[in-house]
Amino acid sequence: MYIFLFIYRYIILAKKQKHCFQYIEMPIKCNTGCGKNAILKRPKTGHALCKECFFWAFEEEVHHTITAAQLFKPGEYVAVAASGGKDSTVLAYVMKLLNDRYDYGLKLVLLSIDEGITGYRDDSLETVKRNEQQYDIPLKILSYEELYGWTMDRIVSQVGRKNNCTFCGVFRRQALDRGAELLKVDKIVTGHNADDIAETVLMNILRGDIARLQRCTLIETTSDGEETIARSKPFKYTYEKEIVMYAYFKKLDYFSTECIYSPNAYRGHARTHLKNLEKIRPTSIIDIIHSGESLSVREGVRMPSQMTCVRCGHISSQEFCKACVLLEGLNKGKPKLGIGKTSKIKEHMETIPEPQKGEKTILNGVKTDKKLLDF
Ligand SMILES: [Zn+2]
Ligand SMILES: [Zn+2]
Q: Do residues 192 and 235 make contact, with C-beta atoms less than 8 angstroms apart?
């Protein structure tokens, strides 16, 4: 009995000591030699840094990305796509900071899309409204309701939860373009980070989608159509973990809740895989992006051509863009139109009357409304 107690005590002591050993760490000096103690380890490089040196490194990398790719010209009007989430909040903050620090000479505006998701977007939009005050950047909110006549809540009630992300993604992409056109901005910046891009590279490889694989690593996307507004990703090489760290240490006000509707399952798998790779080798994220950038398509391979939608005039790889097809399905009570087989699309679409001459439509008859331009 005594022997047993002795052994038990020994084990407890050993456990405590092991814990203490891990706990007592020598304070490490910041790797930059600034003299301060480090408080964090940079996920991207493994460097031990103090708070100020981390902020500086983070901001300078974004500045370098912007200048190396010549993303902006002085005097340009730039919309920051703002959702209230961590990426776009940090992007708005850093764009404002760099614009002031390096005299980019840009006029900034926050552009938010309200998908009409109760309990998710309404809360995140409150965050964006606070950001408008905090960063002193004007805000414009455009809703799916205004642009398409449908909120996501209503779409989900029609199509169920299986395919709703298809609608949301397609509509959001075009909504940003529509909003940017209304605001007459020169460029749009989005908060896509290195993790997002690496995930997309993986997904496009797994799907064999060569056309998207080529496009997805571009820092700036412009289509050949002169009417499309350029979009760029200043966080292309910025790790998600560092964005979270930056927001945390800067105490930025952002909204962090997953969308209440089902997440994109396929992307979820790519994401989990990427996170596992990052644990073993943090540079995996950048390495995947570089791999994506280096891939090119052999000459003579037929690629899908970019055209403009005959209904709404936005870029499309088909005669009718996906947004018009999905919207038509919703309005006709056939929400499955545009999901899955494409053979039936044309005959349905041909029944829609053409817009009158000189009449600029937002989408399928929703006319450009001056009201949308008011701040
Ligand atoms: Zn330091
Ligand atoms: Zn269209």
A: yes
- Report the domain count for the chain: 2
* Residue 194 belongs to domain spanning: 71-294
Q: Which ligand is nearest to the CA of 320?
A: 2
Encoded tokens for 281: 């080798």
> Do 273 and 323 sit in the same domain of this protein?
no
Q: How confident is the model at residue 15 (pLDDT cuts 50, 70, 90)?
A: very low
What span, in angstroms and rounded, lies between the C-alpha atoms of 179 and 115?
13
**What residues are designated binding site for ATP?**
81-83, 87, 113, 191, 196
314/226 same-domain check: no
Residues whose CB is less than 8 angstroms from the CB of residue 291 and which lie 6 or more positions away in sequence, other chains included? 201
Q: What average pLDDT does the segment 318-345 reach?
A: 79
Both tokens assigned to 54? 């981390």
User: From the CA of 231, how far away is ligand 1's center (Å)?
Assistant: 34
CA of 177 relative to ligand 2 center, distance in Å:
12
Distance from Cα 316 to the centre of ligand 2, integer Å: 7
Dist CA 39 CA 54 (whole Å): 10
**CA 325–ligand 2 middle distance (angstroms):** 7
Residues 150 and 279 in one domain: yes
Spell out which residues have Cβ within 5 A of ligand 1, the ion. 30, 32, 34, 36, 50, 53
Do 287 and 311 lie in one domain? The reply is no
Does residue 65 sit within a domain? no
215-257 pLDDT, tens digit per residue, is 889 999 875 555 678 999 999 999 999 999 999 999 999 987 6
Ligand 1 center from residue 258 Cα (angstroms): 34
pTM exceeds cut of 0.85: no
**Closest Cα to residue 169, out of 91, 115, 230, 207?**
115
Are the C-beta atoms of 94 and 62 separated by less than 8 Å?
Answer: yes
Of the ranges 34-38, 42-46, 168-172, which one carries the lowest mean pLDDT score? 168-172
- Extract the annotated binding site: 81-83, 87, 113, 191, 196
**327 and 279 share one domain:** no
Ligand number with the minimum distance to the CA of 30: 1
